[in-house]
């Protein structure tokens, strides 16, 4: 029973703000201190908060990737002399990469684990952004956007599961919601910001 309770707490090893009168670090004291806390900051360890923040950055990169093509359209088309059809391909190929990435993400997560799958998703995203930044023609743009799509397919599967697993059960909903907030509010913000022409 104690082992199950320990697993339910996630990474809640030691409260962020401990009581000053108790210096004994046995498991019963830590559990009673965590149970009596009145605020989320006290009951949640710094490791859980930081781990959630890092994982949610994957959702942030998804929002940036999804909304990037609209404000950058005129600049990219002018710099690389692209047609509307070529730019449309660039704008839509990320979803194809996302579908392919989502097909394989479950198996990859089972083999590598959640943390390493998040790392792999960011490797794909980094390669994709570098390909877009250094693009000399439309195929580099499409290849980069496809690579970002693979990363996005991984992120949409693994981040919510990882965050739900590490969060304490009392705060699991609010921690899981952070991923959606990151995507939902960043996407419209970046979409409405247009560069000067």
Largest sheet: none
Say which CATH homologous superfamily of the largest domain is assigned: MFS general substrate transporter like domains
User: How big a fraction of the residues is strand?
Assistant: under 5%
Overall 3D shape? elongated
From the alpha-carbon coordinates, what is the Rg to the nearest angstrom?
21 Å
Keywords: Membrane, Sugar transport, Transmembrane, Transmembrane helix, Transport
InterPro entries: MFS_dom (IPR020846), MFS_sugar_transport-like (IPR005828), MFS_trans_sf (IPR036259), MFS_Trehalose_Transporter (IPR050549)
Transmembrane segments: 46-68, 80-104, 116-134, 146-164
Subcellular location: Membrane
Give your account of this protein's structure:
The chain is mainly α. The protein folds into 2 domains: 42 residues, no CATH class; 147 residues, Growth Hormone, Chain: A (Up-down Bundle), CATH 1.20.1250. 77% of the residues lie in helices and 0% in strands. It is built from 9 helices and no strands. Helix 7 packs antiparallel against helix 8. It starts with a helix and ends in a 5-residue tail after the last helix. About 14% of the residues have low confidence.
Please supply descriptive tags for the structure shown above.
single chain; 197 residues; mainly alpha; Growth Hormone, Chain: A; 0% strand; elongated; MFS_trans_sf; Major facilitator superfamily (MFS) profile domain-containing protein; membrane; transmembrane; MFS_sugar_transport-like
């Amino acid at each position: 029973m104690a082992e199950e309770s320990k697993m339910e707490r996630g990474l809640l090893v030691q409260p962020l703000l401990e009581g000053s009168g108790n210096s004994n670090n046995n498991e019963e004291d830590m559990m009673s201190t965590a149970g009596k806390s009145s605020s989320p900051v006290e009951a949640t360890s710094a490791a859980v908060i930081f781990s959630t923040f890092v994982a949610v950055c994957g959702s942030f990169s998804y929002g940036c990737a999804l909304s990037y093509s609209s404000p950058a359209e005129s600049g990219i088309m002018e710099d690389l002399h692209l047609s509307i059809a070529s730019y449309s391909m660039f704008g839509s190929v990320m979803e194809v990469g996302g579908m392919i990435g989502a097909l394989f993400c479950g198996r990859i997560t089972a083999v590598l684990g959640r943390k390493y799958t998040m790392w792999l998703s960011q490797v794909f995203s980094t390669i994709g952004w570098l390909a877009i930044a250094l693009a000399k023609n439309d195929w580099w743009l499409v290849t980069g956007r496809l690579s970002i799509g693979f990363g996005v397919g991984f992120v949409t599967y693994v981040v919510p599961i990882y965050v739900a697993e590490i969060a304490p059960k009392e705060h699991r909903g609010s921690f899981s919601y952070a991923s959606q907030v990151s995507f939902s509010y960043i996407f419209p913000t970046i979409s409405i910001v247009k560069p000067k022409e």
